[in-house]
Amino acid sequence: xxxxxxxxxxxxxxxxxxxxxxxxxxxxxxxxxxxxxxxxxxxxxxxxxxxxxxxxxxxxxxxxxxxxxxxxxxxxxxxxxxxxxxxxxxxxxxxxxxxxxxxxxxxxxxxxxxxxxxxxxxxxxxxxxxxx
Length: 132
Prior knowledge:
single chain
């Protein structure tokens, strides 16, 4: 690779970072998906936090992943979750320390993944339109 184009190197870097983030994100979500609902469903999976249609739909895979994602945001970024989905929730959510750390890592990976998606489609779209 004597003289690769900088645009090619940038796209390979973005794609490599996305694959690395994905290989950490998906297993972490799977672990939290099995751990959090069993601990939090009794207190949180009810009205007014979820709509009646969500209570019915979020019980089964694949939509149950959205329920666990809501729990991840509640533990990983509580100020946002309490402002949006869990308004009026005043009780402390008790989960293990490793789950709290993993939820915060998961929220960070979500933000990093969104930034990488913007970079991929922004840079890739620019390159497709104006360079190729």
